[in-house]
Amino acid sequence: MIRQLDVDGVPTLMAPTAGPMRAGLTFRVGTADETLARSGITHLLEHLALAPLGLTDYHFNGATAPIFTSFYMQGSESDIAGFLTAVCRTIHDLPMARLEVEKEILRTEWSSRGNTAVDALPLWRHGARDHGLSSYPEFGLHALTEHDLRYWAARWFTRENAVLWIAGDRVPAGLRLALPAGVRQPVPPVSSALPRTPAYFVNGSRAVVLDSVVRRRTAAGVFAGVLEREMYRSLRQEDGLSYTINTGYEPRGDGHATLRALADALPEKQDAVLGGFIDVLAKLRAGRIEQADLDATVAKREDTLGTAEVDAARLPGQAVDLLTGQPTVTVDELRAELKTVTLPDLHQVAQEVTATALLMVPDGTTADWAGFAEAPTRSTHTLPGTAYREREGDGELRVGVDGVSYVGPGGPLTVRYAECAALLAWPDGARRLIGHDAISMHIEPTLFDLHPAAIGVIDQQIPADRRVPMPARPPEKIPQPYAAANPPHPQQRPAPVQRAWWEIPLMVLSGLATLGVGGITLLLTFGLFVADESDGDIGWLWGMVGVGWLLTVILALPIVLLRRRRH
């Protein structure tokens, strides 16, 4: 049986084990609580908290998930006590001398991480926020400061926002959880980037993957097992189309769970696997579910619940349930619930699965023929603004007061400033705007007749906490403008850009900020000189014209290349 107690004000779960003692400290904070512009802060804090511990004779680790972060160790009683005591102390006294080193370690970890077939699913379902952030690189690492980390630790890593679990018969002697007081943090609201479901998107992976959202209940967990049996029988045993077939069911802390299924395919059999996969879903949605599959799945679950280590194995999940306010149940209650699951219950789950389905299909295939809507890769609208024409092609970039739009091949694409999750800014002037809906625009100074102050307009309209400074790029990585030896024919040059009235003061401000005090003084001196050499108002007017002419010359026009990426 799992017992509940209290250790230094931290709720604690304990269950017996026949093996080595193990324990973990879980906090209700994860990547879903971050923003894209500061993503990676929880992972970085986790690394810094473990950095001083060095090497031990026993296994320890930390993990950052969408809604929780945990620290774990297996070993002797004294080692566990020392480990968790040190973690609680270090979280609020981080070794900031290692800040840049740990950032580099995390960048290396991301770059060496192998992409899996399911990595892109959160982005397509949720966009560039909350649960969708796990699909993105940790863009915030470069700009995170010591102050950011201390604030994050004080807010999230408190005794009220933690649960301790112990697989053993007692609390380790000497264990001290010196955490500050705080509040239990709720699970963040879950966003959606899908206008409608069921939906699909195309991915280069040689697999068909289903992602769906269902109510959290025992019947939904059983359905995942039934779905796997039906897919295995149909796609592997009968048709020989797929080798790897698996399903998963994962509660997300808000009364719902994510249910996923995967089937791999050879390149020449991708269409057949997709068709067979959808046929299986349609069969279950129609209620054609075998009683034998239900019985076999329930029996397998009951066998798992009958093992001696079942309570100890359930401790990490029970800790997350306690943190998120979900009901905790005993093994006997689980057994009783399993016995009540019926075929009509599974039919209801099948309908939930298909109604919320997001299907990842291989290149060269679609699922619109089966009633799945294509997930959006373009915006549904554009915004007014000053238009900058593309020097190669028919596209144009529009910079407006509310956001930026691109109209042309692959578009339209629009990112509103108010809905911009992050602005990536390179020293050479390149910019990437990523919207909450995951629509992304990459602007390079090469192929658009862009006024130099337009980039300043974009920078000024997006709040500083969404700006992500990016490291300088080597020259060979920066797209270059037309070669001077091959200028376009004068008759082929685009017509002058018509400026919007609102852009003029913003361009002036941006230009003055660029020139600095010395540049402004030079311009004013030039204007006053011309005014002094002429008569009255005419002299002053010509002086201001001279100022405007000099400002135009100094702010030479670059070119901007717009590229579009969704991920």
Automatic annotation (TrEMBL):
SUPFAM superfamilies: LuxS/MPP-like metallohydrolase. It comes from the Bacteria. The chain crosses the membrane at residues 506-529, 541-562. Keywords: Membrane, Transmembrane, Transmembrane helix. InterPro entries: Metalloenz_LuxS/M16. This is Insulinase family protein. It comes from Micromonospora sicca.
